[in-house]
Design goal:
- There is one protein chain.
- By secondary structure, this protein is α/β, with parallel strands linked by helices.
- Helices cover 45% and strands 8% of the residues.
- The chain contains 15 helices and 5 strands.
- The chain has helices at residues 20-25, 44-51, 67-70, 76-80, 86-95, 115-122, 135-149, 157-162, 164-168, 171-177, 184-188, 197-205, 218-223, 225-236, 259-280; strands at 34-38, 57-59, 101-105, 127-132, 213-217.
- It has a 5-stranded parallel beta sheet with strand order 2-3-1-4-5.
- The chain is globular, with a radius of gyration of 19 Å.
- It starts with 19 loop residues before the first helix and ends in a 7-residue tail after the last helix.
Length: 287
Amino acid sequence: MNQPPHLEPPYPRPNAHTPVYKWFTDPLRVLPDFLIIGVQKGGTTSLYNYLIQHPCIYPAYTKEVHFFDQHFDQGLTEYRSYFPTGFKKYYQTIFKKQKFITGEATPYYIFHPLVAQRVAKILPNVKLIILLRNPIDRAYSHYQHEVKLGFEKILSFEDAISQEDERLAEEVDKMMQNTSYNSYNYQHYSYLSRGIYLSQIQKWQKVFKPEQFLILSIDDLLINPTLVYKKTLDFLGLPEWYPKTFEKYNRNQYSTLNPETRQKLVNYFQPKNQQLYEYLGIQYDWD
């Protein structure tokens, strides 16, 4: 079985054109068992697409729900609308005698200053998956992604990272003071800041238990996807089952990073990466 029959097309965020039955079934829908919380441009799309092919995993109606970061004020009923119904879970577990879990992947979650506390309040037992990537490559890929989408229209990568502090100044304070405020700059122009992983991980570990985390590397996912997939299934408590292929998702082609810029970023991230290695007890080969 390569493509389980439960896969469904993405469902749009509820609005005036939402089918009426959705509004009546929202309270009957389950909440996620796992979240892939980061990092952006770190392989989250590939891992999520591998996972939702598993016969015991029912996907959200869209990969990135953005509830805990951008739509939290819309309420829990709106969030439930993205997940399968309890009837599906009942049928899967009682009649098919199979496990049933669901989840979503929004890589902005790990970086957003308010999300960890929000998730802890609503999903205290959720399992959290983090994919890490060399922060230099992640930053440059992030920049190219923003250029492609039209959010970064003027600045070169070098200018964008030199102006990052200025662009992000006071944005966290604004979000903390007004929890409904969605910071455009903080989401789109945080090229280097998102690569300082240790502080982000520690923020989440303050409100969740260590056993609720699985921290992976995109390098391992690319080199040995079967092993990473097996590790993830074990973490989620699911039986072994593998996709026929491990296709790479969401990959873009762009020019190579200037060697001088890379060296400057090697120097910038080296002490931060070393602190991460010591904290996790893992030595990543990041320049």
